[in-house]
UniProtKB/TrEMBL annotation:
It comes from Roseibium aggregatum. Residues 10-223 form the Sulfotransferase domain. PANTHER family: BIFUNCTIONAL HEPARAN SULFATE N-DEACETYLASE_N-SULFOTRANSFERASE, HEPARAN SULFATE SULFOTRANSFERASE. This is Sulfotransferase domain-containing protein. Gene3D superfamilies: P-loop containing nucleotide triphosphate hydrolases (3.40.50.300). Pfam families: Sulfotransfer_1. GO terms for molecular function: sulfotransferase activity. The keyword Cell wall biogenesis/degradation does not apply.
Length: 275
């Protein structure tokens, strides 16, 4: 019998995490909770995420909005987090996950705490982190924010110009938290055995060979039909990004040079894929 397994999605934003969630769900072995992104540990630990902490619910609120009450319990009673995911699993559906992209900013100590919390319940804990050319990831996020009218992280209300939004965003703490792949990966390697951490490249993750590799890591049968499935792809991306100053892209790349250097060394294919 396959063992219960919890997948910790540790990022990164706009790197295929929605596809990952959908892919696990279609397997038939995935025990789905009430959401893809729980935002427990980031809200507890990361200052810029604390505004998303769930408020203490009233008794009536607990009955009417059960999911909000569950989030509050997970954020205030750590043991409840592990109990909740344990309760989702069954012999038929032994795989479950919390895929919250901003977990990329969690500390090594927090990653270790999560792994040990599940191991105490005899649940295998593995981590998946998906990465992408940082410049393209940041551009994709700005496209998404503008298409949804979202603000914050340097993007002010009323801003509709892509280049202006990109320029004001890429040096913010929020952007760094989601773009510093090298730091996330090293913290994961410090908290997990290396074989328990899957690093996937957005640029190649839809290829059959990578789907097979990911499936083996998750312990599910590969479904190669998902090589052509794209989830939450921002519309009109090319039109929105037309006319970007190459010097601005070069400045972003220079800002995240440590990310490029680390990934070029650890994942040599990024030299060609990311330039």
């Amino acid at each position: 019998m396959k063992e219960k397994t919890f997948i910790l999605g540790a990022g990164c934003q706009k790197c295929g995490t929605s596809w990952l969630h959908r892919y696990m769900l279609q397997s038939g072995e995935f025990a789905e909770g009430f959401t893809k992104e729980y935002h427990i540990w980031d809200c507890v630990d990361i200052e810029t995420m604390k505004m998303m902490l769930a408020p203490r619910p009233s008794l009536r609120h607990r009955l009417q909005k059960r999911n909000d009450a569950l989030l509050y319990l997970m954020q205030t009673k750590p043991g409840f987090y592990f109990k909740y995911f344990d309760s989702l699993c069954s012999p038929e559906q032994r795989l479950t996950a919390d895929i919250t992209p901003s977990y990329s900013g969690l500390s090594e100590e927090r990653f270790r705490f999560i792994r040990q919390g599940f191991e105490k319940r005899n649940i295998k804990c593995k981590a998946v982190v998906l990465i992408r050319d940082p410049v393209e990831r940041i551009k994709s996020n700005i496209s998404f924010m503008l298409s949804k009218g979202k603000t914050g992280a340097g993007v002010e209300a009323g801003v509709t110009d892509f280049v202006a939004a990109l320029r004001s965003h890429f040096k913010t703490e929020e952007c760094r938290l989601r773009s510093s792949y090298h730091e996330t990966i090293q913290r994961l390697y410090g908290a997990f055995e290396k074989k328990e951490v899957y690093v996937g490249l957005y640029e190649t993750m839809f290829e059959p060979a990578q789907i097979e590799k990911l499936s083996a890591f998750l312990g599910i049968e590969p479904n190669f039909e998902y090589s052509s499935v794209y989830v939450n792809k921002t519309k009109n991306k090319t039109k929105i990004e037309a006319g970007i100053d190459p010097e601005l892209e070069a400045e972003i790349k220079q800002t995240y040079k440590d990310v490029y250097e680390y990934c070029h060394k650890e994942f040599p294919q990024t030299r060609e894929l990311w330039g």
